[in-house]
Amino acid sequence: MKYSQATDYALHAMLYLVTAAPDKPVPVQLLAEKLGVSQTYLSKMLTKLVKAGLIQSVSGANGGYRLRRNKEDISFLDIIHAIEGTASLFECSLNHGSECLIQQVVIEAEQKMEQYLRNKKISELAGQFKGIG
Amino acid sequence: MKYSQATDYALHAMLYLVTAAPDKPVPVQLLAEKLGVSQTYLSKMLTKLVKAGLIQSVSGANGGYRLRRNKEDISFLDIIHAIEGTASLFECSLNHGSECLIQQVVIEAEQKMEQYLRNKKISELAGQFKGIG
DNA sequence: CTATTATGGACTCATGAAGTCTTGAATAGA
DNA sequence: TCTATTCAAGACTTCATGAGTCCATAATAG
């Protein structure tokens, strides 16, 4: 079980957008160079972030991506959920009669992690952030 | 990102072993019937649990599996780690100069989850456990 | 009109999960 | 000692998903 690299890229891209000038949209080409990943691949993740309402896209020349919300309102969990989906980490595959006690425990544990990620905003790192490379 | 079904089976198998009579080893055939999974597949997971030191195997007639430790000393995390491995959920694939701040946050979150799973013992469910099916 | 930029679908490739099959080793009991 | 039972391990198959490419289409600034 691992987070996908796509999540890794998305988190870094968002960190860049949070630290970048908020008025000017950043084209995917620039982001892709910074992260060392292909444009076409990165654009998949950015599209997901757009659909999740975290960023906004501007087509055409001088276009690109910029934040849609206040940067203080964007949590790690928002980004992770946008890429990985919101399904639970654990789903019992046995057909018990009742609710699965084991599943309840693991989901409870997952919620501890989510709670931390929900409270942690990507902008908190912007101060310490010295550039991607 | 999801826990594997193997982890699901292993947790249920351990719950059964914890509630079963501790003196008599339980053969994989019996466990497999209870869980509704094939013997050969389940035995893979049980072998991992043996290697992790959670249970003990007894070959030959009247053999099977029994707990190796005190049942109060077996946590959810022990079982999950035995099956899934102990690698971190997140590994930054960019080559930064320094440590990755993003990775630090996600690993911190993971540790919240692990802390909960480490404190939760499988035997805590034994009381409420009404059988697998 | 053209260059730039995002969107979306089809596609390939590699990896890992899920599961089977078979062979071999250990041991209890006759 | 022989046999039935039980665990261990490796090779193998199948399928789903992650990772990534390529191309055609749509939107927009100049």
Please give the alpha-carbon distance between the first and last residues of chain A: 27 Å
Share of residues in strands of chain A: 5-15%
The secondary-structure class of chain A comes to mainly alpha
Regions of chain A with pLDDT < 50 over 5+ consecutive residues? none
Summarize the structure in words.
Chain A is mainly alpha-helical and 133 residues long. The first copy, chain A, is built from 5 helices and 2 strands; from the N terminus they run αααββαα. Chain A has helices at residues 5-19, 28-35, 39-51, 76-84, 101-119, and strands at residues 55-58, 64-67. A two-stranded antiparallel sheet of chain A has the order 1-2. In chain A, strand 1 (55-58) and strand 2 form a beta hairpin. In chain A, helix 1 crosses helix 4. Chain A is elongated and about 60 Å long. The two termini of chain A are 27 Å apart. The mean pLDDT of chain A is 93. Chains A and B meet through helix 1 and helix 5 of A and helix 1 and helix 5 of B. Chain A binds a DNA duplex (30 and 30 nucleotides) through helix 3.
Short synopsis of the structure:
2 copies of one chain form a homodimer. In chain A, about 50% of the residues lie in helices and about 5% in strands.
Furnish the topology, listing elements before pairings:
2 copies of one chain form a homodimer.
Chain A: H1 5-19, H2 28-35, H3 39-51, E1 55-58, E2 64-67, H4 76-84, H5 101-119
Antiparallel strand pairs in A: 1-2
Helix pairs in contact in A: 1-3, 1-4, 2-3
The structure holds a DNA duplex (30 and 30 nucleotides).
